[in-house]
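Appendix B. One record, verbatim.
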Amino acid sequence: MADVALVAGAAQGLGEAVARALHGAGYRVALADVNEDAARSLAHALNPAGDTACALALDVRAKTAFETALAQLVQRWGGVQVLVNNAAVTPTTPVMEITQEEFDAVLAVNLRGTFLGCQVFGAYFRAQGYGRIVNVASLAGQNGGTATGAHYAASKGGVIALTKVFAREFAASGVTVNAVAPGPLDVPSRREKISTERIAAIEPMITVQRLGDPGFVAATIVHLASRLSGFTTGATWDLNGGLLMR
């Protein structure tokens, strides 16, 4: 029986690319998102019968939402083996204009959501003796960000730290926890938030001279979600076109 993967924030952008890639690789995929209608539409496009793709409502800010999603997957498909924490908001408010309310709202989704997903699904994976968690961080969490808000950068830096903490916590239980840190990607949401002129200015700064393809990031996540990646944990995979080399 094919492994089951839940992708948080799967309705659009990178999350959609990840859901498509995992489904194409043979996983049964739960597309979880606050926008359940969009997730349902994509799930139907992947598998109209619902045998290998389904949509779930998921507000990552609440622990109970993760617990409910996990229970639904256990009931529907008998269990789950993979969690991809991708849900995020990406405001670009200048640092001196960020309100306390906006700061807290961003961290509630990007950082607390990742923490809760790791906590709830990690406990389940540990109990079953196997699991793969992949957290989506960002280059902004490594270099402070240039085209993103400070709260977004801080949240993604926190995701990288949490990845290491949970990797140590679950290492002896057959559970791996890794992160990917994409640089600027060519997704509609980025083009909506950043002007054409700004994108044109960013591209020459990237070593490979172009924005990243979400499919490349999704392919890396598919590898980290696989049973072949058992000797990699606590790692952050740089996918930034050479903007950060280490």
